[in-house]
Each structure stands twice: as C-alpha cells, then as structure tokens.
C-alpha cells in the first residue's frame, strides 16, 4: 500500500501544484503535521509552521488575484516558471535517498506534470478573459480551488483513486490544450485583422481629407 501512497502523492501533488502551488503546499504541510499522511522524510519541511503560514499567506493573495480578469493571467504568467520549478524541487527533494539519477527523473516528471496542469489552467483563463463579463473568472477560480482541495483529499484518503484520476486528467489535458490553443489563435488572428482594417480605414480617411 505504501507504493500507492507514494505514487498518489507524486502524481496528485504535482498536478495540484500546477493549478495552485501554495494551496497544495499548505494542504500537504497541514496533513503531514496532523499525521493524516506520511510525507517523505525529506519533505518534512512542508510541515514546518513557518512554511505553512507563508504558504497560506501566498494562497490568500492568489485567492484574490485569481478572481480578477487579466490580473489572473498576469499572475499565471509569472507562475509559469515558479510552479513547475518549485514542484521539480519538491520531487527532487522527496527522492533524496534514491540516488541522483532517480532524483533527476522524478524532478523532470513532477515538473512536467505541474507545467501541463499550469498551462491548462492559464490557457483556460486566457479564453475566459476574452469575454467581457467578470463572473466567469470567479466561477473558474472557485472550481479550481475545489478541484485542488478534492485532489488533496484523495491523496490523503484514497491515493489509488487520486493516481487514476490524475492520469486521466493528464491525458485529457493534452487534447484540451490543443483545442484551446487553436481557439486562441483564431481569436488573436481575428483581432489582428480587425485592427489592421481599422488602421487602414483611418489612413484612407486621412489621405482623402475626411
């Protein structure tokens, strides 16, 4: 059963961190401190009260920023590097007793999973920001937070289920990202052509003296 707990923590934690790094760190740290889950010895730092407080503080900031149109995309842009790198570092640290090669492999795996879930979130938010109303951002943010909370619950209580679901999420996300990127290209191409035609019309009016 220990191997399933480790795989569930590895996959589920990486995926959740790509969506909300600080909530994931705080959740796993609290779970470890309350002895709801056995964290790898080298990840005991997550259970440190100072780390939990900092993680909760940053989560609070993200909780607000993530619900404001365009601010959420700016926040995601900054975290394009932070989330995968932090997740890679945690994966590397967790495997400190397994040798350098295994550490590097796990760091690459966890970072890749985190990057994929992050890109899925960021791309979705970019599509949502194409609409003028702000309500969708809040709904999407709350849904993401609930999904991360649910993932953390499964990691703690049902690691096998967490492993299966995260694997499905990863596969579906590749298809989803492809569709969203195509959609964004169409939106930006349309906006670019519209702006070009408007500029061309203004120039023509100036030349004709209108």
From TrEMBL:
Query: Which UniProt keywords are listed?
Result: Membrane, Transmembrane, Transmembrane helix
Lineage, highest ranks first? Bacteria, Pseudomonadati, Planctomycetota, Candidatus Brocadiia, Candidatus Brocadiales
Q: From what organism does this protein derive?
A: Candidatus Scalindua japonica
Record domain DUF4126: where: 8-179
Protein name (Swiss-Prot/TrEMBL): DUF4126 domain-containing protein
Q: Name one Pfam family in it.
A: DUF4126
Q: Where are the transmembrane segments?
A: 7-25, 45-65, 152-177
InterPro entries linked = DUF4126
Is Phosphoprotein found in the keyword set? no
Q: State if Transmembrane is listed as a keyword.
A: yes
